[in-house]
Design brief:
The complex is a heterodimer.
Chain A: E1 36-40, H1 50-54, E2 60-62, E3 68-70, H2 80-84, E4 90-94
Antiparallel strand pairs in A: 1-4, 2-3
Chain B: H1 29-40, E1 45-49, H2 53-58, E2 70-72, H3 78-95, E3 104-110, H4 111-116, H5 119-128, E4 133-138, H6 178-183, E5 189-194, H7 198-210, E6 215-220, H8 224-227, H9 234-243, E7 250-253, E8 256-259, H10 269-273, H11 284-305
Parallel strand pairs in B: 1-2, 1-3, 3-4, 4-6, 5-6
Antiparallel strand pairs in B: 5-7, 7-8
Helix pairs in contact in B: 1-7, 3-5
Classes of the chains: A alpha+beta, B alpha/beta.
C-alpha cells in the first residue's frame, strides 16, 4: 500500500470496498505484540526447518547460512518454535523495553 | 512437494499464500492450519471464507492477508457462495465468455459456520455435487465472538455460554460428528486432519481439491485463547488430541474408510485435558466417562476401516 494505514481516507478506498493489493498485511507490524523473543544457539541447529513449518505467522526465514531465523517484524513470540525444536536450539527470553 | 509421506520439512513449498501480519492471537492453531492448507492449494483457486476468526484476523479493511482471490461470505451461505462461483465458472466456460482455466473453488469456515449455521447450505452443496472443497477449521467454539459454545464443543468444556459451576459441568452434549454427516451424502472424499501433522494435512488438502466432485475436510485447530492453554503448547495439544484418540485422523474415499494413523496404544485423555483450562473443573468420574466414550468412538471408526 502506498499510504500508511492511518493516512488512508475515504477517497483512497475502492468502490465496493474491494481490496486491490494481495497480502498487504505484510506491512503491518505484529512484532510489537511480543512479550518473549526467540534466541538461537545455532551450534546445535541441524537446519531441519521444523520451526518454519509450525510457525503460525509464517515469519521464519532462512538466512544466508541456511539457518532458520524468525523475522522479528512479524514474530508474536508464541514460543511454538522453541517447544517443537528437536535439538533445543531456540530458547524464549523476556522482551525488554 | 509431491511426496508428503517423506518427513522432510524443507520440501514444503516456500511460498506463503497466507501472508504474515495477520491479527491472529499469539499461538493460533487455526492460522497455522490455514497457512498449511493454502500452501497445498494449486495456483488457480478462489476462496469463499465464512465469517469467523479467520475472516476477522485476515481481512482488516483495507488490508488483506490473502494472496489469492478471496471472498467474504456470511456464516450461513459459505457453501452456497462456493457452489455459485463454481457454477458461474462452468457456465462462462461453456458460453465462451471466459476460457476454462481449471480454477478450483475452496470454501473455508469455522466449526460454528459449518456445524451450526451453515450446515443447511453445506448439505445442499454436497447433495448437488458441485466440484469444490469445503474445509472446516474446528476450534470447538465460537472463538471470534468470545468463546460461545457451538455444537462442535466437546463434552465437559467450559465456555461463556456453557460455564462450569456447582450445577453445571460445562458443555452437556457430545461433539457433533460433522465428517460423518458429510460422508452420509456419499461424496467422493471426506477427511479429518490436524495442524500438528502438517504433511498429512497438506496431502489431504491437495487430494481433496484435485478430486472431481465435492470434498470435505475437517481440520482440528487449537485455540489457546478459548481453550485456556499456553500459546506454545498449540502444536503439542493438537498432537495429543490425535494420540489420545479424541480426534482420530481418517479419510473416507468413495465410501471406504482408512485410518491415517493407527493407534496401537492410546494415551489417556487426561494427558490432553489437563493442559487446558476449559477442562480444569472436571472430576475423575467425568474424565473416566470421556475416556470411555473416546475409546468407543475410536473403535467404531476402526471397525469401519477394516
Amino acid at each position: 500500500m502506498s499510504k500508511k494505514e492511518d493516512e488512508i481516507t475515504w477517497k483512497d478506498i475502492e468502490i465496493g470496498a474491494i481490496v486491490t493489493e494481495p497480502g498487504s498485511t505484510a506491512e503491518y507490524k505484529t512484532g510489537d505484540w511480543r512479550s518473549q523473543a526467540p534466541t538461537y544457539n545455532t551450534d546445535r541447529c541441524i537446519k531441519c526447518g521444523i520451526c518454519q513449518v509450525f510457525c503460525p505467522e509464517g515469519c521464519v526465514e532462512q538466512d544466508a547460512g541456511g539457518y532458520f531465523i524468525a523475522n522479528m517484524y512479524w514474530c508474536k513470540g508464541c514460543g511454538i518454535c522453541a517447544r517443537e525444536c528437536p535439538t533445543g536450539v531456540i530458547t524464549m527470553v523476556e522482551e525488554t523495553e | 512437494m509431491q511426496n508428503y509421506s517423506v518427513y522432510a520439512s524443507r520440501l514444503i513449498p516456500k511460498r506463503e499464500p497466507f501472508a504474515p501480519g495477520h491479527r491472529a492471537c499469539i499461538g493460533c492453531g487455526e492460522a497455522l492450519a490455514v497457512r498449511l492448507a493454502c500452501k497445498a492449494l494449486p495456483q488457480n483457486v478462489i476462496i469463499a471464507n465464512a465469517t469467523g476468526c479467520m475472516e476477522v484476523v485476515s481481512s482488516q479493511f483495507p488490508m488483506t492477508a490473502w494472496r489469492m482471490p478471496w471472498i467474504h461470505t456470511l456464516f450461513e451461505n459459505t457453501a452456497a457462495v462456493a457452489s455459485g462461483v463454481e457454477s458461474a465458472l462452468k457456465v462462462m466456460a461453456r458460453k465462451g465468455v471466459r476460457p476454462d482455466t481449471g480454477t478450483k473453488v475452496v470454501a473455508m469456515a469455522g466449526d460454528g459456520g459449518t456445524s451450526d449455521i451453515g450446515i443447511q447450505a453445506l448439505s445442499g452443496a454436497l447433495e448437488r455435487g458441485h466440484d469444490f472443497l469445503y474445509i472446516c477449521f474446528d476450534n470447538e467454539a465460537y472463538m471470534n465472538t468470545g468463546i460461545q459454545r457451538s455444537s462442535a464443543t466437546p463434552f465437559g468444556a467450559s465456555t461463556t455460554t456453557s460455564p462450569a459451576g456447582k450445577m453445571s459441568i460445562g458443555q452437556k452434549t457430545w461433539k457433533k460428528n460433522v465428517p460423518a454427516i458429510a460422508a452420509a451424502h456419499d461424496i467422493p472424499y471426506v477427511a479429518t486432519a490436524s495442524h500438528s501433522y502438517p504433511f498429512d494435512l497438506m496431502a489431504k488438502v491437495a487430494k481433496g481439491v484435485a478430486m472431481p466432485g465435492p470434498a470435505y475436510i475437517h481440520i482440528h485447530s487449537v485455540c489457546p485463547t478459548g481453550w485456556r492453554s499456553a500459546p506454545d503448547l498449540s502444536v503439542r495439544l493438537g498432537r495429543l488430541a490425535v494420540q489420545t484418540g479424541v480426534f482420530p485422523l481418517y479419510e473416507i474415499e468413495n465410501g471406504r474408510y482408512k485410518l491415517s494413523m493407527e493407534l496401537p496404544e492410546m494415551k489417556p485423555v487426561q494427558d490432553y485435558l489437563k493442559l487446558q483450562g476449559r477442562f480444569r473443573h472436571l472430576t475423575e468420574d467425568t474424565i473416566r466417562e470421556i475416556q470411555q466414550r473416546v475409546v468407543e468412538e475410536y473403535e467404531k471408526i476402526k471397525e469401519k476401516a477394516q
